[in-house]
Amino acid sequence: MKKSVKRIASTLAICSVMGMTLAACGGNSAGDPQAQKGSADGTKPVTLRFSWWGNDTRHQATLKAIDAYTKLHPNVKIEAEYTGFDGFYNKLLTQFAGSTAPDLFQFTYEWDNDMYDFLLDLKQSKSLDTSGYDPSVLNNFANYKDKMVMAPAGATATSLFYNQAFFQKFGIPETTEWTWDNLLEIGKKVHAQDPNAYLMSADIDVIYKLILQPYVAQMTGKNWINDDYTPAFDNAALTKGLAYLSELYKGGVLEPFGDSSAFVGKMEQNPKWIKGQVGVLFDYISAFDKYKQSVPDGKLGVAAYPMAPNALQSGNPIAAGTGFAVNKTSPNAEEAVKFINWMVNDKDAALILGAQRGIPATSTARKALEDAKQLDPNITKGLDLAAKQKTIAPNVISINADLAQIAKDTLQKLIYQKETPEQAADEIVKAYGSKLTALKK
After folding, report:
1. In contact, 162 and 168? CB cutoff 8 Å
2. In-domain check, residue 183
């Protein structure tokens, strides 16, 4: 997903060598103050370009929110630019390089390091009310270095979703307190009882981020990567995690990788899940609604994430991974912040946007949904279950895309039994060593 910010530098260098201005490389209203004469005083016309990613449900909710805001502020016009997630990051980097970036956009803290120089410091704005945020959310996700680069839109945590009818069929108590061991044990029994049934299914991203990383983190009590750019695990811990993953496949606990890989990021469309041949999925609690809609009669339950006995931490923090950021070169940056403030704090906005970007991160928006009974109790339950466990705040380097790709490439060799857990661990540790050295520089 990620590309080095060096690409931006090289693009700018090409423009410089060719004797072109940034505008010649591609200008827009956000990068060229002369292109837009509006003001944020509430009287003169203001045009804002707002870009985000998501599915159709999020698109429609956001468009309704834009319509409601512009009716309240007739001088403001908001141009909507929306798409799926694929390619959004690269497009945004290219737009910054060419001075064509939108005024405001959906953002994730994973991009802090790459886009920091292009973002407005929201702490300097008088238009954003942060009183409704939990301080830990601001410290862990909104702030980076000396700036507040993002206004978090929602909070989430990983949950165990289960098909209640599947559990009933195979005699699995809904009150089961899940550990990695009983997940393996029960999964083997399910597959032995019905060779066409699997306790779980997972795509490569879930395998890496929501199984392997938490499994290892519960042993180490640390992030995936230390802040000093060294692995937070040793070879033995990684080997143990890889061996466990291998057992999930060998025991028929996980649906065969070749079948599940067709549904990366859209496991609710997996026919085995829809037909009740898969009982458990790991995903963020904010995805509850889409899985509920894909299960017959909406019989979907939520349970606590698996925890090893004596785990040092859960490896499952409550995260405010996405929100809104502002292009610091926008001539109408303050008006952009006003719109963001309305989206994250206003009760009417909360009712329109719902949980399309996660459970609302501010107390005012969350209360509005709860009072209107628009927040499923299972979603709150998922967050509450995660909050009960000891955890640590994630760091940016642990979710680096290059490191993820290294691991995922090796994981597929392990899954297809082309490498043993020991060989796979050696390969990852070696590749991480050179990549982390380069990243640190």
Report:
1. no
2. yes
Q: Which amino acid is at 225?
A: I
Q: Reply yes or no on whether the pLDDT at 9 is more than 90.
A: no
- What is the distance in angstroms between the CA of the first residue and the CA of the last residue of the chain? 21
CB of 279 closer than 8 Å to CB of 197: yes
DSSP annotation of 207? I
Q: Does residue 25 surpass a pLDDT of 60?
A: no
Tokens of 249: 């496949």
Task: List, in sequence order, every residue forming a beta bridge with 121; answer none if it has no partner.
Answer: none
* pLDDT recorded at residue 42: 58
The span from the CA of 246 to the CA of 251, in Å, is 9
What torsion, rounded to 10 degrees, do the Cα atoms 330, 334, 340, 343 define?
-130
**What is the domain extent for residue 26?**
6-156+319-387
Helix, strand, coil percent values for the chain (each to nearest 5): 50, 15, 35
Whether 392 maps to a domain, the answer reads no
Query: What CATH number should be reported for the domain holding residue 290?
Result: 3.40.190.10
Cα 290–chain centre separation:
16
Residues 360 and 227 in one domain: no
> In terms of Cα–Cα distance, which of 217, 261, 236 is closest to 411?
261
343 with 362, same domain: the answer is yes
Segment 389-408, tens digit of pLDDT: 888 878 889 989 999 999 99
How much is the average pLDDT of 189-217?
97
The answer to whether residues 221 and 310 touch, using CB atoms and an 8 Å cutoff, is no
User: How does 28-46 read in b/e, with b if 16+ C-beta sit within 10 Å?
Assistant: bbbbbeeebebebeeeeeb
DSSP 229: S
pTM of the predicted model as reported, rounded to 2 decimal places:
0.71
Which residues, at least 6 apart from 236, have a Cβ–Cβ distance to it below 8 Å? none
Per the domain annotation, does 176 fall within a domain? Answer: yes
